[in-house]
UniProtKB/TrEMBL annotation:
Protein name: MoaF-like domain-containing protein
InterPro entries (UniProt xref): Calycin (IPR012674), MoaF-like (IPR053892)
Domain MoaF-like: 35-127
Superkingdom, natural source: Bacteria
Organism: Polaribacter butkevichii
Length: 131
């Protein structure tokens, strides 16, 4: 039943990769895509810049923390959970699995790192960088 609902929603909404943000002052919804945008992910001790190069390729660079100056392009998958929240997932070259829930309304990111059989949850804030 749930699978049917998800498929139905995807068919009804068209492109599930866009975010829809409702402006209270407008009578219609505004669709915002993360493609082409850069965000700062701040986890406290570690800070990353994440640039969404396309609908399935992102580039991340560590600008503060243990991985400082490390950067990679990643093939990622995403799914829109609601008007302002995305679920993102990718596997890095070293085998690290990354799954994220990004909430653009609350400017928050909840990340789960998977290393072998261990799952490490970390939370942080995000903000769009105007470049």
């Amino acid at each position: 039943m749930m699978l049917t609902t998800i498929i139905s929603c995807k068919k009804h909404n068209g492109n599930e990769n866009n975010l829809t943000v409702v402006d209270k002052n407008m009578s219609q919804e505004t669709v915002i895509s993360v493609t082409g945008k850069t965000f700062e992910y701040n986890y406290g001790d570690s800070v990353y810049e994440v640039h969404f190069k396309s609908e399935n390729i992102l580039h991340w660079k560590c600008i503060k923390g243990e991985e400082k100056d490390r950067e990679e392009d990643e093939n990622y998958s995403k799914q829109r959970l609601n008007n302002y929240t995305l679920f993102l997932s990718w596997i890095e070259k070293d085998g690290l699995g990354v799954s994220q829930v990004v909430n653009l309304k609350k400017n928050s990111v909840n990340t789960f790192l998977t290393i072998q059989k261990e799952i490490i949850p970390i939370s942080g804030t995000i903000r769009e960088l105007k470049k």
